Structures are given as C-alpha cells and as structure tokens.
Amino acid sequence: MRPIAPAPSGPAAHTALPIAPFSNARDAIRAWMRDSTAGDQVGAVRALEYAAAQGHLTAQFKLGRMYAGGDGVPANDLKAFEYFSKIADENADAIPGTADGRIVSGAFVALGGYFVDGIKGSYVKPNADRAFDMFHYAASYFGDPEGQYNLARLYMNGQGTNRDARQAARWMKLAAEKGHAPARAVFGDMLIRGGDGVPRAPVVGLMWLSLARDSADAAREAWIIERCETAFAAASPGDRSAALAMVERQQFAGRSAPQR
Question: From which domain of life does this come (predicted)?
C-alpha cells in the first residue's frame, strides 16, 4: 500500500522527541495516565507526544482522536490525519483481533472519513477512490464493523466504486451481524424495500430495525429509533408480530448475529 500522506507538517512528523523527563514510552504512558487523572492536560499531552514520537500506537491513536475532536487540545484535523496516517503506513499488517489490530483498523476508518470530505485548507482533498481503499482495507483485512458500514455506504452511493446494492447489502449485513446499530438499521431498510438485486424480506428487515433500536445510542442515534418506529407503523400487523417473534427468539438464544 502506497504511503497515505506526504511528510507530516506537525507533531505527527515525530522527527524529534518532545523535551520531557521520560526514560521511555512506557514511562511516558504512566505519566499520561497520572496527569490525566490529576487534571493536568498540558502534562498529559506532553507525555502522549513523547510516547507517540517513539512509535507507541495507543499514544498515536489517542492524539489523533484528541486532535480530531478538540479534546484537551485545539481541534486540528490535519494533525489528526497525520497521526492516523503514520499508524496505517507503519502497521498495516497488524494482526486482526488484537489490541494493535483494533487501533490500526480504527486509523484506517478515520482516514476513510477524511478522504470522503477532505480537510479544508490542506493538502487532503476529497478523494472517493482513496476513501474506498481505506474503508475496504479496514472492512476486509481487519473485519472492522465501522469500516464495513462505511464501505457499504460507498457502494450504495457509487463513491469510489460503481454503485452496487448487492455489495452494499453484503457489507452492511456483516457490520449488522457484529452489533453495529446504524448498519442494522440501514440493512433492515434495504430488506424492507428490496430491489436492485436485494431480495425483499420485510419481516427480517423489521427484525433488524428492532435490533438496531435496542442497540442504538438514544442521544446520538435518534434517527435509528425514528426509522424503526416509522417502519413498524407502516408494516402489517402480521409482519410486526412475526418480526417481534424473531427478535425474541434471537434474544432467547443469546445470539447477536441473526441469519437471513
């Protein structure tokens, strides 16, 4: 895989270790935890930057998330992009399912989002092809449900690839089976509507929407709850009853990945 970003322009360049009284990355991580607990944000960031400069994956990812969200540091999407790029460039072969693998897959997903929209005023321009590459790698190599969901969205919209509802449904289902609430909701919708090569299965679709509602974050994912309520209101009494019976069977069996 070719390098994702040119030479970083900010702290993510890691060309010099921040001046700090740390003997190694592990010492810096302990200091980060201590300073975070004490509310010393400046000290915590300094410790993270030291650990990140020595290649500590958790520190690099944490800093990327902090800069992306403006959490304890001024928001800076380009710095976040460069941290995530360094993680992906140097650790693409991390073992799926491990702690490192989850960090690296998260970096690929974050990069995909940046390539979808670009970063205003920077060298990171919208690039659907690169977004597809990032999400596809996270989805296929790491089996990342967020990557699978976003890859499915690209197939649905024809971004970075040809529009393909069947591929969209395939990847959406994989994410839904892993408990990804938005994927469950969208996949349920796809089954209720059918078409474009996706067989219509309204009862199964209602089941997925019900599972999506149950696993959704009510504050951040109110649209899922609304979509579920709308679909159930439009469904026939028989379909509603059959779908709820399927949900009960899945919950009784303790399975989170129902099969079509």
Answer: Bacteria
